[in-house]
Amino acid sequence: MLKIAIQKSGRLSEKSLELIAEAGIKVANSERKLVAQASNFPIEMLYLRDDDIPQCVNDGVADVGFVGENVLLETGYPLDIVERLGFGKCRLSLAIPKAENYENVKWFNGKKIATSYPKILQDYLTKNGVKAEIHQISGSVEISTGVGIADAIFDIVSSGSTLISNGLKEVEVALQSEAVMVGKKLNAEKKAILEKLLFRLHAVQKGRKNKYVMLNAPTESVEKITAVIPGMKSPTVVPLAQKGWCSVHSVLPEGQIWEIIDQLHALGAEGILVMPIEKMIL
Ligand code: PRT
Ligand code: ZN
């Protein structure tokens, strides 16, 4: 049995459960109590506060955990990042009142900075040779400058709208973070289950990063078209009932789809269909 800790409720919980579900794992207990066992895979889910996940994995209460890299680094436990999960993306940044003149990080010398991430902030300041006072608070960091508690803040930023609505500007990014799977050394039985889980997660994640593309093209342009779309091995080319035309199928990376479609269009492709891929095993 492999024990997996995920956030009970919060920004990471839904995406964590979604990933487990897409790996074909059915977790019977939908009420999300503290512990729930999967009915078709040897895993047990533990639902915890995100801040507690690194310690639980470190103490062996859970074998692996899904947690923000920011939380992992702040708690400082010596865990391995087994897998980057591709969701919960954010950054930890320094922000100051927008009217301030800012040239470089030396601005923070002698200043008071409010944060819930004192360890990551201290490491960043030390690395940059800045001496500032760190004021640790547990929530609503973004209002600290407005109410006069601090000169600046160090907090999680995603869209940046919270900073803007509090009259702040982001001036330094100390860390880019996303949800990661953390773990420690496992025994052979647990390791085998984890390998099986990772095999499935990779298939889901590869599927998310790629699209299945189908198009029709005049036979004479097929050679040029297949040069633009390499595919997993090489594209599938099938003749259409209409003479002189083919259907070309391939798998393309999500990030390049529009660029490639423009090229395909220019080469005479028609009826281009782009479809999501649920799972992809190479
Ligand atoms: O209850 P529990 O302790 O489990 O949860 P929590 O309240 O401590 O954490 P939660 O659910 O808010 O966040 C969990 C994790 O999600 C964080 O540790 C990050 O790894 C990740 N994450 C991704 C974020 C954000 N994006 C984010 N935007 N965590 C917090 N925010 C906050 C940010 O602090 C800001 O105040 O959202 C606000 C809005 O951000 P903007 O820039 O989009 O306006
Ligand atoms: Zn938390």
Could you characterize the architecture of this molecule?
- The protein is of the alpha/beta class.
- The protein is 28% helix and 32% strand.
- The protein contains 8 helices and 15 strands.
- The chain has helices spanning 13-22, 53-59, 69-75, 118-127, 161-165, 188-209, 222-228, 257-266, and strands at residues 2-7, 35-37, 43-48, 64-68, 80-84, 90-97, 112-115, 133-136, 152-157, 168-177, 179-183, 210-218, 236-239, 245-253, 270-276.
- It has a 6-stranded mixed sheet with strand order 2-3-1-4-11-5, sandwiched between helices. A 5-stranded mixed sheet has the order 8-7-9-6-10.
- The protein starts with a strand and ends in a 6-residue tail after the last strand.
- Bound molecules: phosphoribosyl ATP and zinc ion (ZN).
